[in-house]
Amino acid sequence: MKVNKRNEKKVRKTPKIIAIVLVGIFFAGVGFYSMEIKNIISEAEKKSFDGDYEAAIIEIQKGLEIYPYSPKLKQENNEYAARVNEAIKIKVIEETKVLADQNEFETAMSMIRAAQEIYGNDQEYDTAYKEYKKMHALSEAEISCDNGDYAGAVNVIIDAQKDIENDIELLAAYNLYCERYVEEIIKKVDELINQRQYSEAIELVNTGLKILPENENLKNKLTILEALKPISITTIKELNSSYWYWNEEDPKDPFGNDYSQTSNFFVHRNNNKEASIEYRVYQKYDTLTGTIAPHADIGEYYTGAVQVYADDALVYTSPTVEQKTDAFDFSVDIAGAEYIKIVVKISDITFGSAYGKILLSDIQLWPIDE
């Protein structure tokens, strides 16, 4: 069968024609695509010329909905977003500066934090926030100091230093308020020492050390206080005793008061009219203190008394203790004594079922304040 050469040439030409048409369509599409991108960017630029970067972003984002893979639109979107963030940052910092000038530091800090959460962290935001926090801390510390609250002033500065390190102004304020705080503590402690309120003084120093754990003045004061505070007489060795038994029986008085939580207690037994205990104290203490009360089981007609001897010399005799006597404290000067002796006596009554018991508690020795 013969093939028509003319028809064969036509068949051969057809694919070429189609290819040329397709290439033409492609380049026409590319040209249209490029023109559309340019138009979108042009509209965005018009908005940006007026400083309306947010409107420019909206134009770009509309274009990205149609041409989501356009690198040019993505680049423009990022650039306008950066401009928007920069404009907002300038505005926020200007507004917060006005607030800070009006001492509205907390509001200014809140605005900075809100901007960081929405637009991302930035060095300028962080710098502004730290500056406002420092100004706020210095202001609050000064107010606390003026009110006599030096501990509060120190704490405010310490809190600020957690976020703002190596700041000269904060360091200077910290040193100043620490000095005043320690001076205040030492002054109050010395007053308490004069009143022999050592437990309260120790508590005050420990409170200061919680805030300033490395302060040498406070640590030295605590060492002094530990040496001055009284000790329970039961912590030293007894030399002689007669019918004396520490921390036995139920230490309650006729009115229901319980002395079991004191440093020590002694209940006079009714099987002997007199009980005594003696210690060698080596002239280390100048005062003996304690509390005297009738025991809950003392008879209605019984009476008793407590005596203290220093080197065999009577230096104290308590008031008479009866069933209706309220508990009372005593303090005896034993300065210079080598030996001390405590004696408890009860009256000699033999009729009826009543019997006598005297209660001593919290007997302490106070070191000499050298």
In short:
With 370 residues, the protein is α+β, with helices and mostly antiparallel strands. The protein has nine helices and ten strands.
Description:
The protein has 370 residues and is of the alpha+beta class. It is built from 9 helices and 10 strands. The chain is rod-shaped, with a radius of gyration of 46 Å.
The residue ranges in which pLDDT falls below 50 over 5 or more consecutive positions are 19-32, 350-354
Average predicted local confidence, pLDDT = 83
The biggest beta sheet is recorded as: 5 strands, antiparallel
For the record, give the distance between the C-alpha atoms at the N and C termini, rounded to a whole number.
139 Å
Order of helices and strands: HHHHHHHHHEEEEEEEEEE
Instruction: Enumerate how many helices there are, as a single number.
Output: 9
Fold topology:
Elements: H1 5-49, H2 53-66, H3 71-101, H4 105-119, H5 123-146, H6 150-163, H7 168-194, H8 198-211, H9 216-228, E1 231-232, E2 238-242, E3 265-267, E4 274-280, E5 285-294, E6 304-310, E7 313-317, E8 328-333, E9 339-346, E10 358-367
Helix pairs in contact: 1-2, 1-3, 2-3, 3-4, 4-5, 5-6, 5-7, 6-7, 7-8, 7-9, 8-9
Task: Provide keyphrases for this structure.
single chain, 370 residues, alpha+beta, five-stranded antiparallel sheet, 53% helix
